[in-house]
Amino acid sequence: MTEQFRSVPVMDIDFTNTTMDVFLNETIHPCLTQAQKCFIVTANPEIVMATRHNARFKETVQSADHVLPDGIGIINAAKMQGTPIDERICGVDVMHHLLAHAAENGYSVFFIGAQEASNKKAVEKAREKYPGLIVAGRSHGYADLYDEAFVRTVVEAKPDIILVALGMMKQEGWIRDHIDRFDKGVFMGVGGSFDVLSGTAKRAPSIWIRFQLEWLYRLIRQPKRIIRVVKAGQFMLLHVPIIHKIGKVIGYNKSRSRKKR
Ligand code: UDP
Fold first, then answer.
1. Domains in the chain, please, with CATH?
2. Hey, which end of the chain has fewer CB within 10 Å, N or C?
3. Once rounded to an integer, what is the mean pLDDT over residues 170-182?
4. Where along the sequence do coiled-coil regions lie (predicted)?
5. Candidate from 46, 120, 121, 195 with most ligand 1 atoms within 8 A of CB, to mutate
6. Using a 6 Å cutoff on CB, does residue 192 contact ligand 1?
7. CA–CA distance, 74 with 244 (Å, rounded to integer)
8. Could you report the per-residue pLDDT of 18-55, keeping only the tens digit for each?
């Protein structure tokens, strides 16, 4: 984690505490101008919970230059700890900003991840939405992304921005394992964002987001996400005041903290 911004730790993960505008103007734009490298993780409660159970993943997240608070659960947890975070910074919004900024300034983007049809369509949509966008390359996420020939193709394309949409853990793992091969680049895991960009999946309507029910919207559309919702629920048992109290009454928090020790 770079020391540029104050950070707020939530369960051993140091979140960058700033606003979207400041983050973009003071970190991302200079990084691109100076052809440096930057690894960004956008973390929600599921990611934080995953770091508790997977030491290697925890190290990976901790090795990022910036962990951005993506998810209202992180904002609530930080507030409850008495160390509020300035602003929620959503990965999908950062991605759109990166695409717009790249198109305006001639930076190239490599798109890795999602199903072939979704990846292809996402790139088409990005070109349509951001005229002039330079696409350094693209690959769906079900090929062997550790294959040397593939990695060399990405490295030799010298992309300025590398968006990796493989779902949490896999995408951060790919970045961790390959970032050293590159001389420059803004690397970010973007989860299901290509599916949203391509229209394969829909982002929750703003009313759901306003009422902090984005997770419920996604669960209704993809019932397979129930495990993730359970993980986010566990996070809330540990962090959201009223739910935390219920957790205490049912003995959840006590047993978790004993386990932790
Ligand atoms: N994905 C992929 N390769 C894989 C596993 C997943 O390309 O081996 C893609 C998947 O098609 C989807 C995205 O990764 O586009 C994961 O989306 P999800 O919404 O689950 O992301 P998360 O919530 O984990 O950030």
1. 7-198 (3.40.50)
2. C
3. 98
4. none
5. 195
6. yes
7. 14
8. 999 999 999 999 999 999 999 999 999 889 999 988 99
